[in-house]
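Bench notes, afternoon.
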Amino acid sequence: MSIPVSELRQSWPRPSTPRPIVIIGAGGIVTDAHLPAYRLAGFPVAGVFDLNADRAREVAAKWDTVAFATLDDAIATPGAVYDLALPPAAHLDVLQQLPDGAAVLLQKPMGRDLAEATAILELCRARKLRAAVNFQLRFSPMFLALADAIERGWLGDIVDVEVHLNIMTPWQLFPFLKGMPRVEIAVHSIHYLDTLRALLGNPVGVHARTVGHPGTELAQTRTTAIMDFAAGQRVAMSINHNHDFGRRFQEANFRVEGNSGAAQVKFGLLLGYPTGEPDELWITRRGDDWTAVPLSGTWFPHAFIGTMSNVQRFAAGGDDRLLTGVEDAWHTMALVEAAFESSALPAHPVRSAP
């Protein structure tokens, strides 16, 4: 029996009347993903601000928009949605300067740790900010389709989920990570932790170990984690960003198995980042062959259309909730915090010979 994969949802509805977007921050993620996504979607970009004025002017010229001279000028844009593409340490300061009730999309992570995430959450509550965190992997065509397949019951009850990365990440593209005490889980695997929560709910516990590598100066580039979700589910993550031995045995997969079907995602973007390979999603039901889902887009930039669409539609009343709103994103930060806390603890000791 063929699986009707063409029926699966792969995109988020667009806002009927998009608001102007003010981008605060002009780093690589803005030119690699935010601006390409907004141009593709036809979203109006009012302008960009960065503390590095030359960088802001360079980005604005390339993308045919305005470089704001000051943060106050950027914030003063009428009816704007604010896209804070900033390092986590800068979120609180900028949020405090936004008008009450503003619509905001925050770059992940939601602060540097759970204490900052809590402060951001409390500020957003007090100022009635309609704020979401840019956990865009949930909105990628492959994961919208996967979530739809699970909701349709094609996989049955989920019993096993595993994220496996064995890749070579070009850390030189991210110089701001040097000196940060929390790296791999906080800025990369946080995507998988958030997506696991979206698919399975909140875990009750985690065992984790995150470590560096002699070939890099970063605090952590490799992570192993086991999470406790529902009884009978095995959920694991094995991440290695330092497989510098060619493409042959590199892998970047997200596997989900149920009692009546299974799915496998290939993170093509991560294989030879930033050029990458095509993303893939395969689905099977017991007794059927594996079927490739023809994807309508990629993680970068298409997923960034989804997060901004959700914020815009929520602000206009078209969506009834923010999928990655700060209330929900706080729980992802709590899982990140628990993983780092677990990693700092010794493993259960193995007894010595009598």
